[in-house]
Amino acid sequence: KLEAEMDLLNEKVEDVNQQLDLVEQEKAQKEKECIQLDSELDKLNDNLSKSNKEKKGLEERLGEVTNCLQAEEDKANRLSKLKIKLESSVQEASDEIEKQKSARADLDKAKRKTEADLKTSQETVQNLTGSKADLEKTVVSKDKEIGQMQQKGEEDRSQIA
Predict the structure, then answer these.
(1) CA distance 131 to 124
(2) How far apart (Å, rounded) are the C-alpha atoms in residues 29 and 40?
(3) What is the pLDDT of residues 33-67, one digit of tens each?
(4) What residues contact 11, with CB distance under 8 A and at least 6 apart?
(5) In 3-state terms, what secondary structure has residue 44?
């Protein structure tokens, strides 16, 4: 009976040893898997770290681009305002040119009228000068006639007297 118990215990020890071998093999397999998982985890952490650095770099670049874009928008707004101001100045200059053209046309018209009036006045002066000369001749002639008549009248008075 002891031998049977011993055989039974030996069989149990062998079963336990086999189970222990299986567990140790399984443990070795699990440790190998853990090492592989740790290696993969390290790679993923490295990739995550690289991705975070890239993300940070991209965020910084985005900030720079955003600032640059804002500066360009501000510049575009200033240029737009300047363009509007210049267009207004051009319009005012065009209006002023039109006013000056109109004023010049009016002055040219007034000049032509004045020149025509001057010509008419000069002709009138010439006519009056001619008339004056004629009147002066007439006056001289009439003065002579009066002088002659006075002389004749005096002669006639002296003959009557």
Answers:
(1) 10
(2) 16
(3) 999 999 999 999 999 999 999 999 999 999 999 99
(4) none
(5) helix
In whole angstroms, give the CA distance from residue 121 to residue 83: 55
Q: Quick: pLDDT tens for 16-33.
A: 999 999 999 999 999 999
How many Å apart are CA 32 and CA 26, to the nearest integer?
A: 10
Return the SS3 of 1.
Answer: coil
- C-alpha dist (Å) from residue 130 to 125, 133, 135: 8, 5, 8
Residue 10 to residue 19: CA distance in whole angstroms: 14
Show the tokens assigned to 4. 């049977």
DSSP for 63-117, please give it: HHHHHHHHHHHHHHHHHHHHHHHHHHHHHHHHHHHHHHHHHHHHHHHHHHHHHHH
CA torsion sign, 78 to 81 to 87 to 91? negative
Q: Which amino acid is at 15?
A: D
